C-alpha cells in the first residue's frame, strides 16, 4: 500500500472549488511536515502549501486567500480546499511528507522524501 494516496481531483470551471484529500498514516500527520505540490505539463513541480506537525501553515503567494491546507485527523488525511480556481491552477497535485516536524521556507521539493502518485485537477475558462 502506498504511504500517501491522493484523491479528489476533477475537471471544474474557473471560479469553482475542489477539495483534495491525501490519506496518510496517522503518525505522519501528527509528527511531520506535510505539503502539497503541483506540476503542470511541461513545467517543474512547484510547492503549493504546507502544514507542520503543530498545525502551522504556509502558502505560496499565488494561492494565498484561495487555498486552505488542513488535517482531518478523523480520516487520517491531509486536506487542500481550493476555492476561486483559475485555469493556471490546472496541474497534477501531489501530497508529500518531510521527515521533520517543521516545514522550511521556502518549500522545496528536495526536502520531501515521501510522495503520493498525484491527482489531476483541470480548470477550464
The chain-level mean pLDDT equals 96
> Could you describe the largest sheet, including whether it forms a barrel?
7 strands, mixed
Which structural class best describes the helix and strand composition? mainly beta
Taking the alpha carbons of the first and last residues, their distance comes to 37 Å
Q: Choose one word for the global shape.
A: globular
Which spans have pLDDT < 50 for at least 5 consecutive residues? Answer: none
Helix percent reads under 10%
- Count of DSSP helices? 1
Strand content: 35-45%
Roughly how many Å is the radius of gyration? 13 Å
Count of beta strands: 11
Order of helices and strands: EEEHEEEEEEEE
Give a concise summary.
This protein is mainly β. It has one helix at residues 26-31; strands at residues 5-7, 11-13, 18-23, 34-39, 46-51, 57-59, 67-72, 77-82, 91-97, 114-115, 119-124.
Please give a handful of descriptors for the protein shown.
5% helix, 125 residues, mainly beta, 1 helix, 4-stranded antiparallel β-sheet, 7-stranded mixed β-sheet, 43% strand, globular, single chain
Topology:
Layout: E1 5-7, E2 11-13, E3 18-23, H1 26-31, E4 34-39, E5 46-51, E6 57-59, E7 67-72, E8 77-82, E9 91-97, E10 114-115, E11 119-124
Parallel strand pairs: 2-11
Antiparallel strand pairs: 1-3, 3-8, 4-5, 4-9, 5-6, 7-8, 9-10, 9-11
What does this structure look like?
The chain has 125 residues and is mainly beta. The protein contains 1 helix and 11 strands; from the N terminus they run βββαββββββββ. Strands 2, 4, 5, 6, 9, 10 and 11 form a 7-stranded mixed β-sheet that branches. A hairpin with a 6-residue loop joins β4 (34-39) and β5 (46-51). It is globular. The N and C termini lie far apart (37 Å). 35% of the residues are buried.
Amino acid at each position: 500500500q502506498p504511504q500517501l494516496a491522493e484523491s479528489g481531483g476533477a475537471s471544474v470551471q474557473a471560479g469553482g472549488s475542489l477539495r483534495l484529500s491525501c490519506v496518510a498514516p496517522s503518525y505522519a500527520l501528527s509528527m511531520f511536515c506535510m505539503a502539497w505540490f503541483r506540476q503542470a505539463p511541461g513545467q517543474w513541480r512547484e510547492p503549493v502549501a504546507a502544514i507542520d506537525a503543530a498545525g502551522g501553515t504556509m502558502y505560496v503567494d499565488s494561492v494565498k486567500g484561495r487555498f486552505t491546507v488542513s488535517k482531518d485527523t478523523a480520516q487520517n488525511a491531509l486536506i487542500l480546499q481550493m476555492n476561486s480556481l483559475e485555469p493556471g491552477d490546472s496541474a497534477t497535485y501531489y501530497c508529500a511528507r518531510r521527515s521533520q516536524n517543521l516545514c522550511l521556507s521556502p518549500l522545496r521539493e528536495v526536502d520531501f522524501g515521501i510522495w503520493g502518485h498525484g491527482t489531476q485537477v483541470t480548470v477550464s475558462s
